[in-house]
Structures are given as structure tokens and as C-alpha cells.
Amino acid sequence: MTAPLSGIRVLDLTSTFSGPYCTLVLADLGAEVVKVEPPGGDIARQLGAARTPGLAAVFLNMNRGKKSVVLDLKSADGRATVGRLVGTADVVVHNMRPRAAQRLGLSYEDCERIRPDVVYCAIPGFGGTGPHADRPAYDDVIQGAAGMAALQSVNQDRPGYVTTPLADKIAGLTAAVAVLAALRHRDTTGAGQRVEVPMFETMVAFGLLEQLDGWTFDPPTGPPLYPRTAAVNRRPYATADGHLCVLLYTEEQWRRFLDRAGRADVLTRPEFDTVGRRIANADALYAIVAEILRERPTAQWLAVLDEIDVPCAPLAGYEDILSEAYLHESGFVSTVEHPVAGRLRQIGSPMAFSRTPVVAGRHAPTLGEHTAEILAQLDEVAP
């Protein structure tokens, strides 16, 4: 059986996080991803823990299943070679600023002239037609500009970044979806196209989906803030001996939980007697839940909540997650042997297909590991 994107070649001109996350998804789906790196390599090769120079943890995790080709795009020969690679690619992905792509001869118009049906995906920091199109941008900047950092201050004492490069990864994932849609369009029409997924606009749309709230209406009926997720007491609950994550959502869940806790009277209060009022007064309601859950140990609550079919989980850190037996038994967490970096822990793809399974990709490449292979292919197809 072949993977969903078997036969698709992606020319990966990305670095750091947003673009490589996009091409990681495409690689997991079976595309051949040819990653072009400068002579010094993608900066991600130096990010995080490392046993071997140039093969740091972030790079190993973000670039598995890809091929590495080293080209100096500042040189005429390098630009000529990458142009030849464009001619072999179904998809071109980059996260450069528009002027940089143009300067390197890698604008959509440049690539379309070489490969008319190419799917060209740009992941800039800001939208290409706006006033900030050529501003530099990384995840922290976008989290701040798009409202995500300020949003964290609602239930803590100061603004803060989400403790993962969320804007990078959401933009990369959105770009992968856009590429798939453009490939589908090409399948039906034969035509390629330019796709742009700017990080700023992606994160504004992502955040405002629920946070727009009262500003959904004109004139506004209230602030742009969804009260349930902004509640100060929306956090893992302390139990008698630890912490527990619980989300009571439906009428039945609230009724079963409060009945079992001996607090059925709570739902008779005017501020809590409908879904809308419970959302509007979520913080006060979560404070009551916090009082209840402090009364028993975590294990007892888990048994009760499972019995009454309420969503719950113990608070887990990554060391706990990586020790979960079922994740190893299912192969989602596995150990693999990298030819240079040695024995590694690898996290699988969460996507599952009944007919076109995702197959574990190759190891993350060493710098320039596939340069000779890919350039030889170019020579074979040269006119």
C-alpha cells in the first residue's frame, strides 16, 4: 500500500519552525520532501539538546523523512540549480519574506515560468499585500501581534507566550491543508496556483474564532473575550493529593457531577440555570468545582468521574506521557537508530488511514546527505 501523497515531490525552501512543520506533515503523508539548506544548514540544526553537532533535537523531530540538499542561493550556480529543482517539483514551500524570495528568483512568477502547474506555498509573517509584508517575524512576535500573548494575561498577572511555538505550528499546519487543497484543484483542472498562509492572519483567525464573542455583532454586545476560557479558575483543579483536569460542559454532565457531590442546588441558582448563564459566570462556577474536588484524592475522583461519564484526566507532564505503555504498544512512541545521532525516541504521526497508511519516515538527514543523489537525478533528466 502507498502513502496518501506518494509520487508528490515537495521542494522545501523553509527554515526554523513554520515552514518545516508544514513540510513535515507532507512528508508524513508520503511526499518526497527535498529540503534545500544553505552551506551552514538550517538554524534549527542548532536548537535544543544535541549529541552530534548539526543534529539537535528540534531539527531531528521537525525534519524526519526529508532529504537534504546543500545549495548556496547567494551564488549564480546555486540559484540556477534550485531553478532546475523547481522544474521537478509538484509543490514549492518557503517561509521567506516576499522581497527575499524575489531577490533569489523564487517568486511565484519565477517558479510558474519554470513549472506552470506548480503549487507554490508562501508562509510569510504578515500578509503579502499589507503594509507589514516584508517585516521579519518569529513566533513570539506573532503571538504578541495577533493577540495571543495578551490573552494569556486574562487569567494570570501579566502577558505571556504560550509555551510552544504555537503560531509557527498553526501556520505550518494550515499551510499543509492549503497545499492539499491546491493539489486537489490541480488534480481536477491541471492548473497550479499560488497559496499564501501568513502567520499573523492565521493566528488572528485562530484566536478570534471564539474570542470575537461580543464583537461578533455590530454594534458589539460585549468585549472580544470568551468568558469560559478566560475564567481565572479555569485551570487544573487541586485534589486532596494532586491535580485533575475536568471539563463539565453539557447539562447532563453538570447534573450528574453535582448530584454525586451532594451539590445539586447549584444548578437551581439563577446565575447557573442555563448553558448561557453558566458560560457567562464560568469563573464563579469553576470556583465551586474547585472546592468540591479538593475534598478527595485524584484516584477516587477519576473513578467517580469515569463512572458518571464526565471528561477527565490526571495532570500529566511530558515525562509521564512518554512513559505511557499504550503509546509504545501502538507504535506512536518508538525508538529508532539514526546513522549519525544514534538511538532516538521518535513520535509518530497522529493521522491514521485505513487504505493509505502513514508509514514512519526516514531519519532526519545530515546536512547535504542527499545532495549528490538529487543533483544526479537532475543530470539524468537534463535535455
Describe the structure.
By secondary structure, the chain is of the alpha/beta class. It folds into two domains: 9-206 and 350-381, Crotonobetainyl-coa:carnitine coa-transferase, domain 1 (Rossmann fold), CATH 3.40.50.10540; 237-314, 2-Layer Sandwich (formyl-coa transferase, domain 3), CATH 3.30.1540.10. 40% of the residues lie in helices and 13% in strands. It contains 17 helices and eleven strands. The strands form three sheets. It has a six-stranded parallel beta sheet with strand order 3-2-1-4-5-6, sandwiched between helices. A three-stranded antiparallel beta sheet has the order 7-8-9, with helices on one face. Strands 10-11 form a two-stranded antiparallel sheet. Helix 1 packs across helix 8 (166-189) and helix 8 (166-189) crosses helix 9 (199-211). The two termini are 34 Å apart. It is an enzyme of class 2 (transferase).
Number of helical regions: 17
Please identify, by name, the CATH architecture of the largest domain. Answer: 3-Layer(aba) Sandwich
H/E element order: EHEHEHEHHEHHHEHHEEHHHHEHHEEH
- Helical fraction equals 40-55%
Q: Order the strands across the largest sheet as they lie in space.
A: 3-2-1-4-5-6
Count of DSSP strands = 11
CATH superfamily membership of the largest domain, which one? Crotonobetainyl-coa:carnitine coa-transferase, domain 1
Uncertain stretches of 5 or more adjacent residues: none
> In what range is the share of β-strand residues?
5-15%
What is the domain tally? 2
Indicate the overall shape.
globular
- Which value, in Å, is the CA radius of gyration? 25 Å
CATH class of the largest domain: Alpha Beta
Q: Indicate the mean pLDDT.
A: 95
